[in-house]
Design goal:
The chain is built from 22 helices and 17 strands. The protein is elongated, with a radius of gyration of 27 Å. Bound molecules: adenosine-5'-diphosphate and zinc ion (ZN).
């Protein structure tokens, strides 16, 4: 139970050893703990598994022992709160949480213990923090000098540019306004430059010291393959490299989750579905099995994963494109938390690009917001189409130069590295070809067909014309008379799909979702037609798709 240990040494290293049983701090932990224990503010950017929890738990214990009272930890993750409070109890630290899982009697009890400053750490859900009742509780503590620290976990949730915006986080600015003397530490495992700046502004952390760790996860091997028959490709990947191992497969829709889980199960893989449409009890059961049993493959929407700490996830697969690099990094980061090799595998194709673009275009958001989202999507597409090292690209997105980590020991000679040696592009450098000619032919075809027929057509039909295939539809519309008919016969359909993917990615072709996904030219088409924008493409490395034995998408 929880007694005595809250008194004792206030020295961070002593607390680390006595309470947590660890020998030494890791990386920047010591500096962060010192900063916060001394009453300063901190913004901590540290990848998953880096050890963020101790960065606020140890200052909380030190400050409680020094008579400064209760530390408040804001977290959106109920499961994580429960785990951490349980672990703290075992270590003899008095901690509790306030969230929707408590009944009023239990909540009242926690509030009483908080008011008496009996707790060292109080975990609270963000929506609770800005309630009059909670603020009154904090007022009472502050008035007696018993409010020790605010820790804001998953701080990227405050930013609408992040991948997991939660409006309740905005209200957390009140903490600084109301209790300016109380130190704050904000923590996150993903934040690109834009999100980072937004966290600083929204939470008023201008004076906080920033601690930026390397975002590299050296044991994760990145691979992005061209999507043909995604289900079959996934099954092959699992059978070939991860038989009997635990993994997570991310899909975009609930329907797709169900289909893929069923397909894997039919093929003998121990797969379970997880999405928000399932019964809460079923979801819980699947999650428990994933955590406790060995070798379960969880097929899920992104509703799954936040706060789930399973060390031996050996692969994370994406069957659909995430929204942006932050999402991709966060989701793939759930693999290999134990430091052993893990695969981040993604299949992506033309339809993904079309879908993601359309989702942005059709969203009711402000145009400025859509612009930012398009920019973020483009960065992800550039990563997917990259022919050079994925790790170098991924880190560069977080402003990190591979080989020169921001947390490298001082005085150590460092130089940028161009190859990680473990991603797909490093292991087998893809052949690259110049797609400019093919791109111009494609654009011309779209233009001429529109001119001739007065309506637009979809990707398949345009490619048929370019490759000179006299299909029924081609004949019906007299498209064998279009001057570009057959002038792209030397290109395979795969190659042309790649070209089209890039053209859509760079905005040189638009897909009209309201008109059956027909293609049309944009202002950006002209530059490509004039040859001002080079189109460089990876030669497809994947094998032609096998005949589909199971249902199509
Ligand atoms: P994060 O929240 O950054 O993903 P955690 O705080 O959950 O990471 O820590 C990841 C793991 O590393 C946990 O099992 C934690 O106990 C362990 N850990 C953290 N710091 C240390 C340390 N200094 N020495 C040994 N183990 C540590
Ligand atoms: Zn590499």
């Amino acid at each position: 139970s929880t007694h005595s240990l809250d008194s004792g040494s206030t020295a961070p290293l002593a607390i680390l050893r006595e309470v947590f049983g660890y020998e030494a701090f890791r990386g920047p932990q010591a500096a962060i703990v010192d900063q916060v224990t001394a009453g300063g503010d901190a913004l901590v950017l540290m990848p998953t598994g880096g050890g963020k929890s101790l960065c606020y738990q140890i200052p909380a214990i030190a400050r409680a022992r020094a008579g400064q009272g209760v530390s408040i930890v804001v977290s959106p993750l109920i499961a994580l709160m429960h785990d951490q409070v349980g672990a703290l109890h075992e270590a003899g630290v008095s901690a509790a949480f306030l969230n929707s899982t408590l009944d009023w009697q239990e909540a009242l009890d926690v509030e009483r213990r908080t008011a008496r400053a009996e707790l060292t750490l109080l975990y609270a859900a963000p929506e609770r923090v800005n309630t009059p009742r909670f603020l009154e509780l904090l007022d009472g503590l502050a008035a007696r000098g018993k409010l020790a620290l605010f820790a804001i976990d998953e701080a990227h949730c405050v930013s609408q540019w992040g991948h997991d915006f939660r409006p309740e986080y905005r209200a957390l600015a009140v903490l600084h306004e109301r209790y300016p003397a109380v130190p704050r530490i904000a923590l996150t495992a993903t934040a690109d430059a834009l999100t980072r700046a937004d966290i600083v502004e929204r939470l008023q952390l201008q004076d906080a010291r920033q601690f930026v760790s390397s975002f590299d996860r050296p044991n994760i091997r990145y691979a992005i393959v061209e999507k043909k028959d995604a289900s079959t490709q996934l099954l092959r990947f699992i059978e070939r490299e991860h038989e009997g191992e635990a993994g997570v497969v991310y899909c975009q829709s609930r329907k797709r989750v169900e289909e893929v889980a069923q397909m894997l199960a039919d093929a003998g893989v121990n797969a379970l579905p997880y999405h928000a449409g399932l019964d809460a009890a079923v979801r819980q059961r699947h999650q428990d099995r994933f955590l406790r049993e060995e070798g379960i493959v969880m097929v899920a929407t992104i509703a799954f994963g936040m706060g789930i700490d399973k060390p031996d996830v050996r692969f994370v697969a994406h069957l659909d494109l995430p929204k942006n690099i932050e999402g991709y990094y966060q989701e793939t980061g759930r693999g290999g938390r134990d430091g052993l090799p893990a695969d981040a595998w993604m299949a992506y194709g033309l339809q993904d690009v079309v879908n993601q673009r359309r989702m942005i275009d059709e969203s009711p958001a402000a145009e400025e917001f859509k612009q930012v989202m398009r920019g973020k999507l483009d960065a992800l597409l550039a990563l997917a189409e990259a022919t050079d090292c994925r790790r170098v690209r991924l880190l560069a997105y977080f402003d990190e130069t591979y080989g020169m980590p921001p947390d490298a020991p001082e005085g150590e000679e460092r130089a940028p590295l161009m190859h990680c040696g473990s991603c797909d592009n490093c292991l087998s450098p893809p052949a690259v070809w110049d797609g400019t000619d093919a791109a111009r032919k494609l654009l011309s075809t779209i233009y001429r067909v529109q001119q001739q027929s007065g309506i637009g057509f979809g990707a398949g039909h345009i490619m048929d014309i370019l490759r000179g295939k006299p299909t029924e539809k081609v004949k019906q519309f007299f498209h064998e008379r279009v001057s570009t008919f057959g002038i792209g016969a030397e290109y395979s359909e795969t190659q042309l799909r790649g070209v089209l993917r890039q053209l859509i990615a760079i905005g040189a072709v638009e897909v009209d979702a309201e008109k059956f996904n027909t293609l049309r030219l944009t202002d950006g088409s002209r530059a490509v037609l004039r040859g001002e924008v080079p189109v460089r493409l990876r030669e497809s490395v994947s094998q032609p798709a096998p005949r589909r034995s199971r249902r199509e998408r």
